[in-house]
Amino acid sequence: MRAVIQRVKQAWVQVDGQEVAGIGHGLLVFIGIGEKDNEQAIAYIVDKTVNLRIFEDQAGKMNLSVLDVEGEILLVSQFTLYGDVRRGRRPSFSHAMAPQQARMMFDRVEQAFRNAYPRCKTGQFQAMMDVGLVNDGPVTILLDSDKTF
Fold first, then answer.
1. Reduced DSSP (H G I as helix, E B as strand, rest coil) percent helix, strand, coil of the chain, to 5
2. Catalytic residue among 49, 78, 113, 122
3. Of 6, 14, 30, 79, which is the active-site residue?
4. Is 80 a catalytic residue?
5. What is the pLDDT of residues 94-140, one digit of tens each?
6. List 40, 80, 111, 126, catalytic entry
7. CATH number for region 2-144
């Protein structure tokens, strides 16, 4: 499982011109689900994300988590995080989980996030979404449950 985590002042998701979710200060988290992902991958991504110390403390150091600052989390499913462009110019998504399985896995990811921190909202799975954000910093962190980076 892969995640792109952005510290934001605000973020929102629209589908067909209508806002389906929005947050204030917190984290925008894009989630890519790989073909071999399981409960261990979910646990790793959720724990790392909610405890990631990327918010500034009173001394200006990145020392606080989204839990500490009582921010919000916006989860957005993004299979393109598994786009492989090492060969050619068109991405291959062969390592992304198939859509029907990925939908069930994303539901489990969402539930795990809500169990860890209830201030979560989500985009709309498998929809063409417009995602807007005001990046705070900017701060962007990459996570991979296989720990390849």
1. 25, 40, 35
2. 78
3. 79
4. yes
5. 999 999 999 999 999 999 999 999 999 999 999 999 999 999 999 99
6. 80
7. 3.50.80.10
